[in-house]
Structure formats: structure tokens, C-alpha cells
From TrEMBL:
Coiled coil: none annotated. Keywords: Aminotransferase, Pyridoxal phosphate, Transferase. Its cofactor is pyridoxal 5'-phosphate. This is Methionine aminotransferase. Residues 28-375 form the Aminotransferase class I/classII large domain. One of its GO terms (cellular component) is cytoplasm. Belongs to the class-I pyridoxal-phosphate-dependent aminotransferase family.
């Protein structure tokens, strides 16, 4: 029987497509956002320890208590925000699940959800699957900052939710105090919630600080903050994230979460709880990734691309419109096949798929691979 698709315009994600192409071509994969190096060996030893100790059955639905406590401690240390680990912290199977559960918790049929364009590709489908209508607000190019007049104009009586991403993927833009305060002013007298994707919270550069939406008192009462230990500790394949939200929002969030995954891998939670006991393991991350960003950008100076160093995340965008009018998707495929370096065409992040002649590279790779990739990129022929 024919299936009436709930997502008729959605196909296989570009990340899957480009990673497969990179593998098929033996190319250096600077496309999909995962680290090209392993995690700390001590973290692996901790997982083995807890597996051998018999912690291999279901974890509590909301997460292992000590793990939630450590997440709350990290939040207090980094942002000065005190959370109740029992009622405001939920462990989930990856930030994508957190985003979906948060949208599901508050969006009903006919609700409008403001998305900043370009946006990560899971946002709009989550809205649509819950009967909501995505309303796209273009970010300001070339820095991808927020035009708050456009946001104000997009808000209607049907606006239920605004989805935020800082540091931003794909651009790396990091929200400012002014951004947080302006958002709070716009929604303070309205029944609007916020979902904040903060998976790159510990990856910011040049002295910038990530400002979690939790740090604004009004936003804290309206916001689901979604985070990822996969990004922070180089274990994206573990799919472990978390959601921080006030008790009334957490209650609704957990109603959805329990029927999506119910719980997350038990020994991994215990291992991460122990690992979080030493704050330097995440506080040193900006320096670790700044070295890679700087290395990559220094090499890019020897290419024909134009670029501005990313403010955050582990992605660097480059512009080539002054060199060629080739469609970004076609160029990304060609570079993967011809020179052996895979990237992401950022047209896929835009709601209208507009081609701005920009590619996104992931620099969360071994330095030797970055050097090889840069050498190849320096010899591109347009």
C-alpha cells in the first residue's frame, strides 16, 4: 500500500551522503561533524570498569542520579546557575533526541515556530512532525548574526516557540549578551517558549564566552537547553546528551522522552559522571580546538578561498563566489572525488536551498589529516 509520508520533502541527510562519498572515494572527511580522534583513554577505562561491575541494565528514565548531579555541578561552575538535578536535568540519547522531545513537549497543531535560517537540518522536521509550522527568519550575512527587527516582525499570536543555536552551526556565530537580552524582551509578555541548541558550548575562540540562555533569568524560565557530551568529549557515537529546563517544562519533556528512548546506556552514564568530576576536562576544550582552528585557517590563507575565522563550533566556512559560480553541492562532490577532501555545501542548511557559494569544513580532525587536506585545497583548480 502507498505510504502518505509525514515528511514528503525530506530525503537522506547531506551528512550521510557526503560521509559515504568520502568513504567510497578514500577522501579526508571534513564534512560530517565528528572528531577524527578518539576520546581520553581514561574515559574508555571507566566504561569498562562499570560494564564489568554489572551496570548493564536499564538506567532510570531521567538519568543516573550521580550523573545528573555532575551535570548540575558543571552548570553551576560554568554559568553560575544552580539547578535541581532531580527536577531540572534529564539525560537523553543524544542532543537530537533532546531537541525533538522539547519541541514535542510544547508544540501543537497549527503552532508557529521561529527558526533562524540557515539552521541544522533536524529542526524543521521536528516542528512539522508535531503539527507545527516553521517560520524562517534569515540571519544577517556575512557574520550570520540575528536581525532582531525581523524576529519581531515574524512573531504572531500563533508563535509558540523559538529555536536558538549558539555557537551556531554552520557559521560558528556566538550569541552576545545583547542577543539574549533582546530575545527576552521580545517574549516577556508573550506565551512563547525557547529551545536552545548549545552542543558546542565549550568550543569558542579568541576569548569569547558561550552565554547559555540559562544565564538570563527570564529566558531560564522559558527555555529547554540541549547539550551533548558527544561533542564535548569526542564520543559522538555514544549519543549521550542532556536537557536542562525548569520543573514544569522538564515534566512535559520527560513525558515525551520516556516514549522515545526511555533511558540512555547505563555504563556510559556512570563513566561520564566520574569523568566530569575533573572540570579541566571540559574547561580546556576552547584552547584545544582553537589550536586546530588556527592551524586550519593559517593553511586556508594559502588557498584562493575567502573566509573569516569561526567564532565557535568546530566548523570553518569558506566562500568561493569570487572564483566560480559552480553550485555548492556540485563543488562539494567534485572536490571529494577529484582532490579527496569532503565538505558540506551550506545551501542544505537554508530553507530555500539558496546557494551562497559557501562550503563548510570540520576541523575536528588529527593535525596530520588537516595538513594533508590543506595541501590538497591549496591546489584546487576552478
Amino acid at each position: 500500500m502507498p505510504i502518505s509520508s509525514k515528511l514528503p520533502n525530506v530525503g537522506t541527510t547531506i551528512f550521510t551522503v557526503m560521509s559515504k562519498l568520502a568513504s567510497d572515494c578514500g577522501a579526508i572527511n571534513l564534512s560530517q561533524g565528528f572528531p577524527g580522534f578518539d576520546c581520553d583513554p581514561e574515559l574508555l577505562d571507566l566504561v569498562t570498569k562499570y560494564m564489568k561491575a554489572g551496570h548493564n541494565q536499564y538506567a532510570p528514565m531521567s538519568g543516573i542520579p550521580i550523573f545528573r548531579e555532575r551535570i548540575a555541578e558543571k552548570t553551576k561552575l560554568v554559568y553560575g546557575v544552580k539547578l535541581d538535578s532531580e527536577t531540572e536535568v534529564t539525560v537523553v540519547s543524544g542532543a537530537t533526541e533532546a531537541l525533538y522531545a522539547a519541541v514535542s513537549a510544547v508544540v501543537k497543531l497549527g503552532d508557529e515556530v521561529i527558526l533562524f535560517d540557515p539552521a541544522y537540518d533536524s529542526y524543521a522536521p521536528a516542528v512539522e512532525l508535531n503539527g507545527g509550522k516553521p517560520v524562517f527568519v534569515p540571519l544577517e550575512m556575512p557574520d550570520f548574526s540575528v536581525n532582531w527587527n525581523r524576529v519581531k516582525s515574524a512573531i504572531t499570536d500563533r508563535t509558540r516557540l523559538i529555536m536558538v543555536n549558539t555557537p551556531h552551526n554552520p557559521s560558528g556565530y556566538v550569541w552576545t549578551t545583547k542577543d539574549l537580552n533582546t530575545l527576552a524582551e521580545l517574549i516577556q509578555d508573550k506565551d512563547i517558549y525557547v529551545v536552545s541548541d548549545e552542543v558546542y558550548e565549550h568550543i569558542t575562540f579568541d576569548g569569547r564566552k558561550h552565554l547559555s540562555l540559562l544565564t538570563n533569568s527570564l529566558l531560564r524560565e522559558r527555555t529547554f537547553v540541549c547539550g551533548s557530551f558527544g561533542k564535548t568529549f569526542h564520543v559522538t557515537g555514544w549519543k549521550i546528551g542532556y536537557c536542562l529546563a525548569p520543573p514544569q517544562l522538564t515534566d512535559e519533556f520527560r513525558k515525551v522522552h520516556q516514549f522515545l528512548t526511555f533511558s540512555t546506556a547505563t555504563p556510559l552514564q556512570y563513566a561520564l559522571a566520574d569523568f566530569l568530576a575533573e572540570p579541566s576536562r571540559y574547561l580546556t576544550l576552547p584552547d584545544f580546538y582553537q589550536e586546530k582552528r588556527d592551524l586550519f585557517c593559517e593553511g586556508l590563507k594559502e588557498t584562493s578561498f575567502k573566509f573569516t575565522p569561526a567564532q565557535g563550533s568546530f566548523f570553518q566556512m569558506v566562500s568561493y563566489g569570487h572564483l566560480s559560480q559552480e553550485y555548492d553541492y556540485d563543488l562539494a562532490v567534485r572536490l571529494t572525488k577529484e582532490i579527496g577532501v569532503a565538505s558540506i555545501p551550506i545551501s542544505v542548511f537554508f530553507s530555500d536551498k539558496k546557494d551562497h557559494k559557501i562550503l563548510r569544513f570540520c576541523f575536528a580532525k588529527e593535525n596530520k589529516d588537516l595538513f594533508i587536506a590543506l595541501d590538497k585545497l591549496q591546489n584546487i583548480k576552478f
